[in-house]
Each structure stands twice: as C-alpha cells, then as structure tokens.
TrEMBL record:
Entry GO CC: plasma membrane
Membrane topology value: Multi-pass membrane protein
Family: Belongs to the drug/metabolite transporter (DMT) superfamily. Small multidrug resistance (SMR) (TC 2.A.7.1) family.
SUPFAM superfamilies named among the record's database cross-references: Multidrug resistance efflux transporter EmrE
Entry annotated with the keyword Transport: yes
Transmembrane regions listed in the UniProt entry: 27-47, 59-79, 85-104
Superkingdom assignment: Bacteria
Organism annotation: Companilactobacillus nodensis DSM 19682 = JCM 14932 = NBRC 107160
The protein's name in its UniProt record: Small multidrug efflux protein
Localization: Cell membrane
Length: 106
C-alpha cells in the first residue's frame, strides 16, 4: 500500500503544479484553492508512504513522478516546447525512477 500512496502522492504533485500555473500567480482563487488542496493531499500521502519506505527511496520517486508528470502536462496541455535532446533526458529520468523502484527491497 505504501507504493500506491507514493504514486498517488506523485500524481497529486503534478495536480498542484498544474493548478498553480493556472492560478496565474495565485490571482485566480479557484485554482489557488485547488493548488493548496493538491499540495495537502500530495504531502499527506508522501508522509504515509515514508512511514514504511525509506526517505532515500520515497522522496526521489515522488519528485521524479512530479517532474515527469509536469513535463507531460506542460507539453500536451500547455503546449510547452520540448527539444529532442530533452526527451532523451526525460527518458533517462523515467528509467531512473523505474530503476530505483526495482532495486529497492521495500
């Protein structure tokens, strides 16, 4: 269950980052509230995951999911430009997250 908490926490990191962009510097109240809610859910689930997972495993995976998800949301939803070389590094990040997961004993 701790891995499920961690994955969902990472996904909510993407949610709050996306809502923060849509809040336009916290000037739009509805997106500002969604940002805060996303942050709370993300942090609470990360805290639950770190009850049993080592911080050295949980935190990099949490941030990695958030980073990858934010890149994909930026590219597909916000129209961010991503260079071909950047996609190589994004792929390496994904491989690293998977590698951390499969090489940990928890």
């Amino acid at each position: 269950m701790n891995w499920i908490y961690l994955i969902i926490a990472g996904l909510f990191e993407v949610v709050w980052a996306s809502m923060m962009k849509l809040s336009h510097g916290f000037t739009k109240l509805n997106f500002t509230i969604l940002t805060i809610i996303g942050m709370i859910i993300s942090f609470v689930l990360l805290a639950k995951a770190t009850k049993t997972l080592p911080l050295s495993i949980a935190y990099p995976i949490w941030t990695g999911i958030g980073a990858l998800g934010s890149i994909l949301v930026g590219f597909f939803i916000f129209g961010d430009k991503v260079s071909p070389i950047t996609w190589i590094f994004i792929t390496l990040l994904l491989i690293s997250i998977i590698g951390i997961k499969f090489t940990t004993s928890s």
